[in-house]
Structure formats: C-alpha cells, structure tokens
C-alpha cells in the first residue's frame, strides 16, 4: 500500500542576504531579531579575540605589554563601549524572547473569531519597556565609560 505524497510548493529565496534584514510584515520585531543575531555574532567575535589576546600573556611580559599597547587606542575604547551596548541589548532582548517563548506574553488560547486578537499587542509594551531600559542603561554606561562629569 502506498501513501499519497504531499507536494509542497517551494518558494525560492529571491531576497538573498538583504532578505535577512528585511522586516516585511513583521515590523519592529524583525529588526530586533536581526539586531539580536548581529549582537550575538559580535559578542562571539569579541570572545574569540579576547581569548587570543589573553593568550599573549603566556609568551612573556614583553609580548603582553606590546599587545596591551596595541589595543589601548581610542578605536578599541569605542569598541569596548560598543561591546557594552551590544551585551545590554542582547540581554534585554533575550529576556523578551524568553518571556515570549514560555508563553507569558502570548495570552490564553481563544476561539479564532474575527477580528482576531493579536499577541503583538501584549508583547509590544514589554518590548518598549525593555528597549527603553536598554537605552537608559547604555546612556548611563556612556556617562561612566567616558567619564562625563
């Protein structure tokens, strides 16, 4: 006995890499998704570079001082602040994603009666709160990081 095979229509990815960042119908949540991925990759890159630079310490004091002088410039100082901002954003957006994944921001299941209730209306205030908190922490961190008085 043969089972009928389901034929699905395959849609090719015509957008390519720019389609990764295209929000389409998802609005701000898609941009948060893209920024979450980019900050995650940036944090991973920093981790790899940090381990590599720290490895110079076993090569001796002279190598360590050379590396510390090389990474002591203004560009690296700004990069450290960018890392700080990325970690804060990544953590706040991760909290939003965890709350959504566990169903706290989805609401109770209900019968699909028109007009359909959107879960985004429950998620959007939490997203705005967490992103506002992110901006406040990043600005406060800038005041401390750049020693504004």
Polypeptide structure, described:
The structure is a single chain. The chain has 5 helices and no strands. The longest helix is centred in the middle third of the chain and has 28 residues. The mean pLDDT is 85. It is an all-alpha fold and 149 residues long. It has a single domain, classed as Fumarate reductase/succinate dehydrogenase, transmembrane subunit (3 helical TM bundles of succinate and fumarate reductases).
Question: Can you give keywords for this protein?
Answer:
single chain, about 150 residues, mainly alpha, 3 helical TM bundles of succinate and fumarate reductases
Structure annotation, total helices: 5
CATH-scheme architecture: Up-down Bundle
Helix-strand sequence = HHHHH
- Could you describe the largest sheet, including whether it forms a barrel? none
Note poorly predicted spans: none
How many separate domains make up the residues?
1
What is the radius of gyration? 23 Å
What is the CATH T-level topology? Answer: 3 helical TM bundles of succinate and fumarate reductases
Average pLDDT, rounded to a whole number, is: 85
Number of strands: 0
CATH class: Mainly Alpha
* Structural class determined from secondary elements: mainly alpha
Approximate strand percentage: under 5%
Tell me the helix content. Answer: 55-70%
Measured between the Cα atoms of the first and last residue, the distance is 80 Å
Q: In CATH, what is the homologous superfamily?
A: Fumarate reductase/succinate dehydrogenase, transmembrane subunit
- Coarse shape: extended
């Amino acid at each position: 006995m043969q089972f009928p095979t389901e034929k699905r229509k395959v849609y090719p990815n015509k957008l390519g890499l720019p389609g990764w960042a295209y929000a389409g119908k998802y609005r701000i949540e898609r941009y948060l998704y893209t920024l979450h991925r980019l900050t995650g990759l940036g944090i991973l890159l920093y981790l790899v570079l940090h381990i590599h630079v720290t490895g110079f310490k076993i090569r001796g004091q002279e190598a360590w001082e050379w590396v510390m002088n090389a990474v002591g410039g203004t560009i690296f100082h700004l990069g450290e602040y960018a890392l700080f901002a990325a970690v804060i954003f990544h953590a706040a957006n991760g909290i939003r994603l965890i709350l959504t994944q566990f169903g706290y921001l989805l609401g109770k299941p209900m019968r699909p009666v028109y007009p359909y209730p959107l879960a985004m209306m429950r998620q959007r205030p939490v997203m705005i709160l967490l992103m506002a908190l992110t901006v406040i922490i990043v600005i406060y961190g800038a005041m401390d990081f750049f020693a504004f008085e």
